[in-house]
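Input.
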Amino acid sequence: MRSAPAGLWSHFRRQAPAYALGALLLAALQTLMSVRDRLLRAGVNAALASNASATIRVVVLILVVVVSAAGIRVLSRMTIFHAGRMAEYEIRNLLLRRLLVLGVSFFRRMPTGEIMSRATNDLTQVRLLLGFGVLNVVNTLFALISALSVMIGVSGRLTLAALAPFPFLVFVTRGYGRAMFRRTRDNQAAIGELSERVQGSLAGVRVVRAFSLEESEKRAFHAASLGYLGKALALARLRGFMGPTMSAIGATGMLVVFWYGGYLVMTGHMSHGDFVAFWAALSRLTWPIMAFGFVVSMVQRGRAGYARIQHIFEADPDVVDGSRPAPAHVHGSLEVRALGFSYRNGKVLDDVSLRVDAGRSLAIVGRVGSGKSTLAALLARLLPTPRGTVFVDGHDVCDLPLSSVRRAIGYAQQDAFLFSTTVGRNVAYALDDPDTVQGVARVREAMRDAQILDEVELLPDGLDTVVGERGLQLSGGQKQRVALARALLYEPAIVLLDDPLSAVDARTEAAILQAIDQQIRQRTVVLITSRVAAAARCDRVIVLDRGRIVESGTHEQLASAGGVYSRFVEEQRLQGEIERAGDAALATEGAS
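Output.
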């Protein structure tokens, strides 16, 4: 928690010119207000002396001062609020950039709903602190100096009497501030938990409906809501007590002024004009005193919000850039040397070594849980690849910039993710100018290579069809081929395909195999699959079993070797015969 103010100070410092200008405007504003108070004293004394000309002159001057102060007040707020917004913009950009470099371990620890809460609710509190909070703190300081200059000039004894409650105010504020920080932090954590519950329910709404668990989700949401309600009410109670307490302390000072100031006027130790000027100056402190608790609350909420955001800033990324510059050209050779990798549960890959020359193809085959997808993520550096194990064109990928590695390796993941936009926009994700004639032509060509263009053109709006949340409007095979087209449009030297045939029908499988054939002729291809029909198209096949390479060779060599791969071939041959027999039986039954 101690690091949060230092971080906030860095953002404040970068907006220092705007804050300095705003502070100068506030100083000018309070200077004009002190001039107004002195003019009020002169005006009242002139009016009581029946000096009409002097009274009119003072009234005109007060009008000029008040109008000028109003203009400066507006400018000061615009300046400081703008600085707060710019600081928010800076923090938001830093937050997004940080989230983009953090690895899977961070997102396992912090769920999406919690991240969204910190990026919205907590950041809003920080923005209020850096805008409205700074404005009120600076304005209160200058108002205190300005008012005291008038009050002391009128009567030092009355000033001491009016400010007598202030030490108690500082003591009470300190206690409230600490409690406010703790309760605000707990409240915003509860908001994060509630956001995560809502996000999870919405993302899995089809599963909820399929299992008829709406009531269960309602109960879980109700429990999370009650948790948030308890934290919110605790915070509201504290804020409810704080406002009246501050107001009561301020009102005590006012009562003292009325009693003692009235006594001084009646005994002739103070003129009526002096009392009016003193009262006007003290009145300028009334709102800051009454709002002091609110400002303290805002400051503590902002600090608590930034402390939660700081957890994201301080998280260490799993994968970082290498120190060497990106190579001018990537030919596409890929080599793995004695690669091992472990999760918390144990070792997933053990002593994996392989090589694919530029322009050649390799199939990596294995059962579910053999380590295929982990190997794919390590090749693309989506996981922390051990140094000295993966090389592109002879360069250790850990020494290269991440952007160059991922530019060289186009990775189409098994779980194809699509953004909630059009099909064309999903394919053109990597393009800077997707709407130009050249951009559209490249999108269509990539979709043609991925064997998806004809199907997309049959959709209601063609390439402009919105795919829905996570590609909801498309089938599994269509999503995989759209993701494949997106990877191909990137024009990588190496195409890494992670099980593109999982959960697709025979027609879709044939279309994807045709797309793979075309890619094998154009660039280096690493195909991770459990289907021997796809592996047979590659120049070489390796078989993973429990994280180790147990077989390596061509499809023909392994199919006749009597090992793991040959069993895959036989199993899938029998499975295909059973499926064809079932289809034939259904066709015969339908004909009869």
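Residues 85 and 210 are 45 Å apart (CA to CA).
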